[in-house]
User: Which sequence fits this backbone?
């Protein structure tokens, strides 16, 4: 049969896995077997299976054909899956960095570009999308001790490049809840922290950004297990939580994402509002001089 072997193109990604899961669901709803799909597409059955797991990329023409074969007539469903297929194959500005970061990390800037809103809880450092260059460089140098200078600067460039989604037309709706001790932690020294805290105040003035501080005086809450990010996705997708650990990055989808949504509601309720948070940051700024 034609089509044996691994197709050329992008490798497995969160978007390819999402596309494969949706196509598998549509196939099963239509009571069509993978053998029948293989015959229809003139592909090996194992390739069809890898399409559905997201291990292999699937071409737009094949997605279009399958939607018709599965009897999918809903316009929104067809447009959503065809657009997702295009995202699988589309090169983003972050693609040149693929070989310099972990495979899972490269899904992060894609999620940031597609989400309707990003909620992040931080208990150790200021979130990467709100870091100054000096702060980011200090954090990355410590996390990647032994890396060369050129590589360090490339990683810093990648982090700062991601921040573009917070500005301009269609700027991302962003909320950060940050533990108060993070604002006291002397990352890079007094001058770096002075610049960073002032930058937080400036960002908090934007209509699309909320910076909220969770006071040290507050008791236990649901974020005690560590920092996390919660991506509020368009209605056709599940929300996604993202967690970084020493063992690697983890993306959490439905139904397990519910735990992160609950935790977010809890820490958000406990945090100061943006105005009181800004006042606290200004107080900390005075104390650091």
Assistant:
């Amino acid at each position: 049969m034609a089509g044996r072997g691994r197709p050329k193109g992008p490798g497995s990604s969160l978007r390819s896995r999402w596309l494969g899961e949706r196509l598998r669901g549509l196939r099963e709803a239509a009571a069509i077997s993978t053998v029948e799909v293989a015959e229809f597409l003139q592909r090996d059955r194992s390739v069809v299976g890898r399409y559905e797991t997201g291990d292999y990329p699937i071409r737009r023409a094949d997605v279009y054909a399958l939607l018709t074969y599965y009897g999918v007539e809903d316009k929104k469903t067809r447009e959503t899956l065809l657009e997702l297929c295009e995202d699988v194959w589309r090169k983003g500005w972050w693609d040149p960095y693929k070989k310099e970061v972990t495979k899972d990390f490269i899904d992060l800037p894609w999620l940031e570009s597609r989400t309707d809103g990003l909620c992040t809880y931080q208990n150790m450092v200021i979130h990467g999308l709100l870091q100054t260059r000096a702060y980011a460089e200090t954090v990355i140098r410590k996390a990647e001790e032994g890396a060369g200078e050129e590589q360090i600067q490339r990683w810093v460039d990648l982090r700062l490049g991601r921040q573009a989604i917070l500005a301009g037309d269609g700027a991302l709706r962003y909320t950060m809840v940050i533990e108060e001790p993070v604002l006291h932690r002397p990352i890079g020294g007094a001058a770096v922290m002075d610049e960073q805290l002032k930058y937080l105040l400036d960002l908090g003035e934007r209509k699309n950004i909320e910076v909220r501080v969770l006071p040290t005086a507050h008791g236990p809450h649901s974020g005690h297990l560590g920092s996390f990010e919660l991506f509020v996705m368009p209605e056709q997708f599940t929300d996604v939580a993202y967690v970084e650990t020493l063992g690697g990055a983890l993306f959490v989808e439905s139904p397990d994402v519910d735990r992160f949504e609950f935790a977010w509601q809890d820490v958000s309720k406990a945090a100061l509002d943006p105005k009181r948070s800004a006042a606290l940051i200004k107080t900390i700024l005075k104390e650091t001089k």
